Amino acid sequence: VQLVESGGDLVQPGGSLRLSCVASGFTFDDHDIGWFRQAPRKGRELVAQISSSGGTTNYADSVKGRFTISRDNAKKTVYLQMNSLKPEDTAVYFCYASGGSWGQGTQVTVSS
Prior knowledge:
Blueprint: E1 2-6, E2 10-11, E3 17-24, E4 33-38, E5 44-50, E6 57-59, E7 67-72, E8 77-82, E9 91-97, E10 101-102, E11 106-110
Parallel strand pairs: 2-11
Antiparallel strand pairs: 1-3, 3-8, 4-5, 4-9, 5-6, 7-8, 9-10, 9-11
């Protein structure tokens, strides 16, 4: 089982990024997927999650209206579109597959 995140970068406040999480080694479309983040000296928090079919999504209150999670089961990929980024969005972002698999994370830094 492998999850590989990419797309993290340094971006100015108000900017946008799209993160990708590519899965392999398991039946991707049987699993819900979540994006989590962990800022320095803070615990890991759920940012967004999407059901196995893509029909249901949930978001943390702090990102509602700014972030969008989506998935392409044919490509075994989940995306996190992040708009109107704020300095408090700075964190390492991880994807997680239901059943207990984590990616290695990708760094997002929002700073002027």
